[in-house]
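Hello K.,

You asked for the raw outputs rather than the summary table, so here they are, unedited. I folded two proteins back to back in the same session to keep the settings identical. This is the first:
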Amino acid sequence: MRALLPLIFFIAAYVGLSVIAGDFYAIPVTVAFMMTAIVAVALSRGTLKHRIKVFSRGSGKDNILLMIWIFILAGAFAHSAKGMGSVDDVVNLMLGILPGNMVMAGLFLAAAVISLSIGTSVGTIVALMPIAVTMAHTMNESVPFIAAIVIGGSFFGDNLSFISDTTVCATQSQGCKMSDKFRTNIRIAAPAALILFVAYAVIGWQSKVPTDLPEVNYLKVIPYLTVLVTAIMGMNVLLVLVIGIALSGIVGMMSGDYGLLSWMKVIGEGIMGMSELIIVTMLAGGVLEMIRTNGGIRFLMNSILRHVHSPRSAELSIAALVSATNVCTANNTVAIITVAGIAREISHKYALDPRRVASILDTFSCIIQGILPYGAQLLMGAALAGISPLQIIPYLYYPLILAVFALGNILMVRKLKTEE
């Protein structure tokens, strides 16, 4: 329990400081994480040098550094594309095609299709969020609400895609085919997504598209169109962003919006705009590594496994294990890898279907990752939208609906099998 105190402190500190400030979004996440990092180091065992070494190891892990590279390039691309008008032209093009009542549903569908194609929620958010936010401003819609639509849709594909790292880890660890896991998973995710698609169409019924849209400069659409197409083709997200940055500069200079030096300046501003996000990511990585090293995850696993007595409780325990681990690691892939071995042991002991176990691991890890204010997806989405991650959370309907269907599937299917 002691190992989990930093995580509990983070939640208490953030909420407490926000209440004192009188504004729930006034306190930067960096402040809460800095205080949490100090507490995590103070509560850990060993010499101060050893504790700092463990913290630094967590901050510099491969997955943390990869996220930081994505944040840097995403900031550079988003700022570069926006500075020369690419985002505005893409938005005007989309608003000219979509009727107003289908903009919200259309964004959700676009995020779902792109994420299903490229297998990454972060890559989808990077590609779509600047467009979605500009559309929100143009149509006078809530930015946190629109941001949540993109994030929710991005997790649909992250959960189902054949090339998603969560799918690969879940299926390989449980010894089942991706196609079998997909068929099991789609029965849960598809109804949740369909309900939300219809809901967004209904919610957006009164939305109006401005009639005085400027004429689209199709040359400026090229950078974003290229990013979307290359992402859907499965190109590495880092390479996609590098291409996007280069095209933004080339098109910007061709259209007279940039000189070489002004383009470089805009890129620098975009990177600096991601500085808070980068700091939070490194602090979170260090704190979560200390929780793991000090036995926090093992404590959670032992606490949950005490309640396993039947196939139904076995499936619920696997869902709880991967969910709790995801809270402590802020990475759904790492959470799956961490509990996969134990999940397989539980599966063998209670004769569970490996396809269902793989589906549970993937689905519940995505549900938790989709609502974590310190997860890469919400941090990235909030940074690109210029808002706090906590402002997005109240509108994250897809993870909640998916959770209802996923839990219902465990409870109802197991009940039917017991009755049979």
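The second followed immediately with the same parameters:
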Amino acid sequence: MLGDLCGFGISYFDFDAAGYVKTATEVSADNSALMRNIRRHEHALEGAIVGICRALLAAERRLGAPLPDEGEVRVTFDDGIITDTTAEKRQDIDEVAAGLMEPWEYRAKWYGEDEQTAKGLAPLN
């Protein structure tokens, strides 16, 4: 009941569990309320983080630092608890090497670049 009231899910404080190591899929399935709560908090924090970044850049410009306009600022939260990002990156690198994925697609996916920027910075095959 405490876990449910805190937004962590009904089985968050389940002390009767066997105590074995769970996969990321099992964790997210068992704690769907917790995962929804995390998403809600990430969504709420995104605007604040963007605002802080813009304020810092504006303050630096005001102090005389020759910084360009920041353009679009995006916040990307890592879903490491849900997905194994290291394994997914490794798979994408293998797909680029095998010619199944373009290098610019990799850059766009993992570095958050738009298609034009990614194509300009990606190595030619």
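The mean pLDDT is 79.

Happy to rerun anything if the numbers look odd on your end.

Regards,
P.
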